[in-house]
Amino acid sequence: MEVLTKAHAHTYKKVRLVGEGINDVVDFTEAWQQAQDDGLDLVLVGGKSDPPAVRIQDFKKVQYEQKKARKVVKQSELKEIQLKPNISDHDLATKISSINKFLSRGDKVKLTFKLRGRERENRDRAQAIANKVLEVVPCKHTTLQGPMLIIILEPVK
């Protein structure tokens, strides 16, 4: 997109003026004068067509909206939730609701099970709780091996 000025009159003799209910071929000077009368810019939208397509609009407003649209794209974050093997059912339900909230926003969730002492030798309770979470939460998951039980949950697209 480019703003056209009076100096472009020698380059473009005729232009196609497009917009709300408008699709006419007119002289460049006529389209430029109409834009000046409206207090707006004459913007080149289709320079490769014959005749080139132009639109009467506020170019600064278009640039602002394009810049604003680029900023909206959000990067996903990695949220961490820590659990213990002896967590109560109510606390687990609260953690699951947090997990669902994070996944619905598009974030990844890292479930970390803190295993202390003899809990490290018997990972069955932690694995059972992890299975409960994975049954309830719709997501893709990756399990990492190591001294702690770590599961990374990703939202399903």
Layout of helices and strands:
Blueprint (H helix, E strand, L loop, with lengths): L1 E3 L9 E6 L2 E6 H11 L2 E6 L6 E5 L1 H13 L6 E6 L5 H16 L3 E6 L10 H13 L2 E6 L4 E7 L2
Parallel strand pairs: 2-5, 6-7
Antiparallel strand pairs: 1-4, 2-3, 4-5, 7-9, 8-9
Describe the protein in words.
With 157 residues, the protein is an alpha+beta fold. The protein has 2 domains: 7-70, Translation initiation factor 3 (IF-3), N-terminal domain (Ubiquitin-like (UB roll)); 78-155, Translation initiation factor 3 (IF-3), C-terminal domain (Translation Initiation Factor IF3, 2-Layer Sandwich). 34% of the residues lie in helices and 32% in strands. It has helices at residues 28-38, 59-71, 89-104, 124-136; strands at 2-4, 14-19, 22-27, 41-46, 53-57, 78-83, 108-113, 139-144, 149-155. The strands form 2 sheets. A 5-stranded mixed β-sheet has the order 1-4-5-2-3. The protein has a 4-stranded mixed β-sheet with strand order 6-7-9-8, with helices on one face. It is rod-shaped. It starts with a strand and ends with a strand.
